[in-house]
Specification:
- This protein is α+β, with helices and mostly antiparallel strands.
- It has a single domain (about 5-65, about 120-210), classed as Alpha-Beta Plaits.
- The protein has 7 helices and 12 strands.
- The chain has helices at about 15-25, 70-75, 100-105, 125-130, 135-140, 175-180, 185; strands at about 5-10, 35-45, 55-60, 80, 85-90, 110, 115-120, 145-150, 160, 180, 195, 210.
- The protein is globular and about 50 Å long.
């Protein structure tokens, strides 16, 4: 099992709902982020002239890597990779040495100066343990983010149902909160061999996926 998130970058509008939802659900301190949204571009590809440029938003958080270097360098085994594929931190064991912060190739760990322990995205373990979606997925306004087990294929990943599809059926709060759609059934078609990307792999094996059609992927 390898829990992960797949993000359709063609649908992401950079609204930062995922960032705000994450901070609210996990009480992330002011000035720190478990989930960042980066603007890539504007860039001009060969054959393109201004104002015909392209740009996209890239969500970056802990990638819950297959071979996390942060786990390898932790001297107290505070950082561990679990059976569900997520990388978690045991705050009772963390001594705040920040070896893991320096080892992370994506810069997504930080030291909580008040608690003197390292923190990062947990993939909302408190929610997925109860069968819920991570907060950044459930609150994505563009329906761009989907969660699931990478070993079952990203088309099986799930996201919240679009409330507009409930019109005339069951448009209750409970239905819109609990309803699910799969990535493969909901988003626009894509080619898994050419339209699916991951952050640079330096031997750690990032687990999150990014879908982008008709754009150049800038590493």
């Amino acid at each position: 099992m390898q829990y992960a998130i797949a993000t359709d970058l063609n649908r992401c509008v950079g609204c930062l709902s995922c960032t705000v939802a994450c901070k609210s659900a996990n009480t992330v301190p002011i000035g720190e982020f478990w989930n960042k949204v980066l603007r890539i571009g504007p860039n001009k590809r060969e054959g393109m002239d201004f104002p015909n440029v392209e740009m996209y938003f890239l969500t970056v958080q802990c990638q819950h890597c297959a071979h996390p270097e942060c786990v390898a360098v932790c001297p107290t085994e505070a950082s561990t990779k679990r059976e569900d594929g997520t990388v978690q931190i045991d705050k009772a064991k963390c001594i705040g040495c920040q070896f893991c912060v320096m080892a992370c190739p994506y810069g997504v760990r930080y030291l909580n100066k008040d608690e003197k322990v390292v923190e990062k995205c947990t993939l909302c373990e408190q929610k997925i343990a109860q069968g819920e979606l991570p907060q950044c997925v459930s609150q994505c306004g563009g329906r761009a983010r989907y969660f699931g087990d990478a070993e079952k294929g990203i088309k099986s990943f799930e996201g919240p149902i679009d409330p507009f599809t409930l019109y005339g059926k069951d448009n209750s709060y409970a239905a819109s909160r609990d309803g699910r759609v799969t990535l493969g059934d909901y988003i626009e078609p894509f080619d898994e061999s050419t339209d699916v990307y991951q952050l640079p792999d330096v031997g750690n094996g990032p687990s999150f996926y990014y879908i982008m059609r008709n754009h150049k992927w800038y590493k």
